[in-house]
Design a protein that fits this description.
The complex is a heterodimer of chains A (318) and B (290).
Chain A (H helix, E strand, L loop, with lengths): L1 H28 L4 H6 L5 H10 L6 H13 L13 H36 L4 H13 L4 H15 L15 H35 L2 H8 L4 H38 L5 H10 L3 H29 L1 H9 L1
Helix pairs in contact in A: 1-4, 1-12, 5-6, 5-8, 5-10, 5-12, 6-8, 7-8, 7-10, 8-10, 9-10, 10-11, 10-12, 11-12, 12-13
Chain B lengths: L1 H8 L3 H30 L1 H4 L31 H37 L1 H15 L3 H12 L3 H27 L3 H8 L4 H37 L11 H8 L7 H29 L1 H5 L1
The chains are: A mainly alpha (318), B mainly alpha (290).
Chain lengths: 318, 290
Amino acid sequence: MTRYLVVRVIGVIPTLIGISILVFGITYLIPGDPALIMAGSEATPEVVANLRQQWGLDQPVYMRYLSWLGNIARGNLGDSYFSRQSVVQLVGNALPVTLELAVLSMLVAVLIAIPTGIVSAVKAGSWFDLGAAALGFIGLSIPSFWLGIMLIYLFAVHFQVLPAGGFTPLSSGLVPNLKSMILPSFALGTFASTQLMRYLRASLLDVLHADYIRTARAKGMRERSVLVAHAVRNALIPFITVLGVQMGYLLGGTVIAESVFALPGIGRLVLTAVLNRDYQVATGIIFLIAASFVLINLVVDMLYPVLDPRVRLARSRA
Amino acid sequence: MAAARGAARGKSGGRGFIAAASRRWPLTVGLLFVLLLCLVTTGAPLLAPASPDIQDMANVLRSPSAAHPFGTDEFGRDLLSRVLFGGRITLLASSAAVLLASLLGCTIGLTAGYFGGWYDALVGRIVDILFAFPVILLGIAIVAIMGPGVISVVVAIAIASFPNFARVSRAAIVPEKEREYVLAAHVVGASTWYIIARTLLPNLVGPLMVLVSLGFAYAVLYEASLSFLGLGARPPTPEWGVMLSTARDFIFQAPWYAFFPGFSIVLLVFALNLVGDGLRDAIDPYRSRR
């Protein structure tokens, strides 16, 4: 068991190094001299040369990569070229918004997906199943930004019950905070829910045809107990993995939802950074999101043996 | 399709009929829709009631009427015409992206699966790394390098989607290359490239076609999303994502402005998903009748 965990954690290191090379490569490939961008168009060559030396831009590429990597390892993602604020500080301000959005969207997705997925599988072939499949199929085709705009029209313009955008922090009260997050979480969560629902339905159908389910029924177990104690419990194990992957996509999707609903999160930060050519901020955040995606998947992988004793046994024997 | 599979489980005649009917229609309906949208957007110069760029400041943000079936935008331009013309960039950019992604992904995936060894391991690692980047984020990164524009969006979607093609084609070729007919090709002295391209590839076309149509659906979504974020086509170009991002600011005055371009995206993606799902069922009858 311990060996499995250690191997899995070590296996992540090359991926993280690869991500860091790729992200650093992006910084390197970006046209234009960062020193010139920082100094502005009117700066004298001496000022530019000074800046270049100050930011270490005059060193060879591998040296710059290594010092960048060293800084990241110490938790320093650099400073914004313009505001001179540290990227860590900027991220720290924006992260709570994005995390709240991602968690609430996931909650919406799971609350839709689990009941519909279970009923669809148990009543496979029924009108409910067909209807849920059709709705899920349509949901898969709706871009979240359009759904967001349509929700704004419905709930902010037509019924005037929810704000059209903007973020109310938790410090102004839980209800106003949640009100500002309901529409974005639905816009983002619906898309994820369709995929989760399809997945849960398929995995539950597989489980329902397993021998141990037949055995449970044959020994006279009540159908409800068969479903809850055996089928759903086992079907949820692979579901957790998909949940991890979906969480990563949600982190990407927050860029769009934050843009539609004018939320001051990481997504907006990275988008404005790219559009303003504030590349230190942009690459810092891109690295952070990619690395957290890898780490989320690592955590999910480690949960797997905890949830499924069969995996635990098989892997400790290996 | 999931529905067809579910329906096929039912024993009664009525459900059997639903199953039979639902088994083939998605592919047909999807293909018809995609074809229709292609025709309508290519024929935009003939079909559009007005030029997409002509401004009419006397008729700004008018609701749908006989003169302007989809209404007008903030410059009084005819929205039906702009939606028709807008589909061209979306269709062209997303098909270019899928073409690039499938060529790149399949070449890499097929060779990795066929040759194995360190090359396969390296490809696997690169694919893993690229999978760690959400597509939208990868798009932002590529736009940072190349600057905003349609070409950047095409490159971004291609780079973000090729790992999927690589992974699926690799998974498909690994069991296939052990089959007798491949061995037979070796025995008669066919070259490695001949075996990959002429012996193996035709047998993998099925799963790859499914992947292409589903990848196309995603490409449309990503293209519209990146343009919506201001990373692709720029105003005043008529493009669905760009139109939506402007329309969002006029949602209080002109809700129809946001409705039509968005609904067009939904139709196109829905049709492409139908094609992908229909193809999957046609290729793998076991899956649809299970």
